[in-house]
Amino acid sequence: MAKAKRPTDTNKRAKSIVDIATGDKEDTLSKEAISSAAAALGRKGGLKGGPARAAALTPKKRSEIAKKAAAARWHNKED
Fold this sequence. Notes:
Helices cover 70% and strands 0% of the residues. It is mainly alpha-helical and 79 residues long. The protein has one domain (10-74). The longest helix is centred in the middle third of the chain and has 26 residues, at 31-56. 0% of the residues are buried.
């Protein structure tokens, strides 16, 4: 489990630390909160990455990648 992010306000942070020390509150995040945050971050990068990569490729390089992908798709196909 990951540690929960603490508040930036000094008073709220102090209360949060006291709550954790007295057992009123746990100092960890749930797995669901972590995985949903990671999924959102991955999606954010994925939405940017594909178009940015495509824009950076030359037509010749794009063609080479497509040929390699087609060869990989058809490699194990039976007639």
